[in-house]
Amino acid sequence: MKLQHVIESQQFTVPLLMELFDRTRRMEKIVARGGTQDYEHKVMATLFYKSSTRTRFSFESAMYRLGGRVLSTENGKEFSSEIKGESLEDTIRIIANYSDVIVLRHTEEGAAKRAALISPVPIINAGEGNGGQHPTQALLDLYTIYNECKTINGLSVALIGALDNGRTVRSLTYLLSKFDRIKFYFIAPPEMQVKPDILAYLDKYRVHYELAADPEKIISQVDVVYQTRIDRERLKRSDIDLSAYNIDASVLKKMKSNAIIMHPLPRSVEIDQTIDDDPRAVYFRQSRNGLFVRMALLTILFDKE
Ligand code: CP
């Protein structure tokens, strides 16, 4: 199946996702054996205009474990020629001369699409804007759900946090809605609820969803709790008690015994560290899956050539 660039979750079909997950399982075994040299002639450029720990490090580790090499700037705003007025398009044209794939994190929504329009090498959107997409995070999230729950069809998923600007929530919603009988529960303070474009997409594909401000009633019903940060400074009212959205031992008691708690990380106060050792807390396994999924994704892009 052809995959030229990775810009948004809607590009992925269920067969392509299953191919990615088959490859991801192979990558887990390859990493356990110490990696491979199969892609030793490949060079990956990571061009990040915004901060990142997981995405950049896991992509770079993925390339090294495939035997390839990495060119990197972790602060494109300061250390690329943007500071001298160079356009994103020209920067991409230049970096494409030196690399076989470009992983781009950018401040502006639509930057990855602009880059892909002129790039002769694959562009991977590593997260863009506020309220844009982060498709590779959604791929590793979906793989984690598949691995932990042994299925995707029929799951009930609660997405909690600042959902309007949540890149990972947006991208994951698009991916999950490709599967059968998914039920979404979007739980957020009213001013941070998921945006109408996502709801229109779910309506179009007749996917079940409910909007709620209070996690209390829903948490006991769902198979997956996908927690994200809430930035207090964006709340219109300062008296809203955000602790209602936090997950701690008392919330855990109400959850199904086989439900899972996910978080794209980094976390702040919204997941209490005292629950980290509960087997349902999968967020550190989820971030490790980022390595394997990104290795698999790179091989799909390289192998099509
Ligand atoms: N989840 C995620 O994208 O983390 P980073 O911002 O650290 O890459």
Rounded radius of gyration (Å): 19 Å
Largest sheet: 5 strands, parallel
What small ligands are held by the chains?
Answer: phosphoric acid mono(formamide)ester
Distance between the termini: 12 Å
SSE series? HEHEHHEHEHEHEHEEHEH
Mean pLDDT: 94
What's the CATH topology name of the largest domain?
Rossmann fold
Beta percentage is 5-15%
Query: Would you tell me the structural class of the helices and strands?
Result: alpha/beta
Order of strands in the sheet with most strands: 7-6-5-8-9
Kindly give the count of domains. 2
The CATH C-level name of the largest domain is Alpha Beta
- CATH-defined architecture of the largest domain: 3-Layer(aba) Sandwich
- Shape designation: globular
Number of helices: 10
Query: Could you give the count of β-strands?
Result: 9
CATH superfamily of the largest domain: Aspartate/ornithine carbamoyltransferase
Q: Helical proportion?
A: 25-40%
Low-confidence stretches: none
Task: Provide a descriptive summary of the structure in words.
The chain has 305 residues and is an alpha/beta fold. The chain has 2 domains: 9-133 and 289-303, Rossmann fold (3-Layer(aba) Sandwich); 135-286, 3-Layer(aba) Sandwich (Rossmann fold). The chain is 37% helix and 15% strand. It is built from 10 helices and 9 strands. The chain has helices at residues 14-32, 54-65, 76-79, 88-96, 111-118, 135-149, 167-176, 196-204, 249-254, 283-303, and strands spanning 43-48, 69-73, 101-106, 123-128, 156-160, 183-187, 208-212, 224-227, 260-262. The strands form 2 sheets. Strands 7-6-5-8-9 form a 5-stranded parallel sheet, with helices on one face. The protein has a 4-stranded parallel sheet with strand order 2-1-3-4, with helices on both faces. Strand 6, helix 8 and strand 7 (208-212) form a beta-alpha-beta unit. Helix 1 (14-32) packs across helix 10 (283-303) and helix 2 packs across helix 10 (283-303). It starts with 13 loop residues before the first helix and ends with a helix. It binds phosphoric acid mono(formamide)ester. Phosphoric acid mono(formamide)ester is lined by residues 52-55, 127, 134, 137, 264-266.
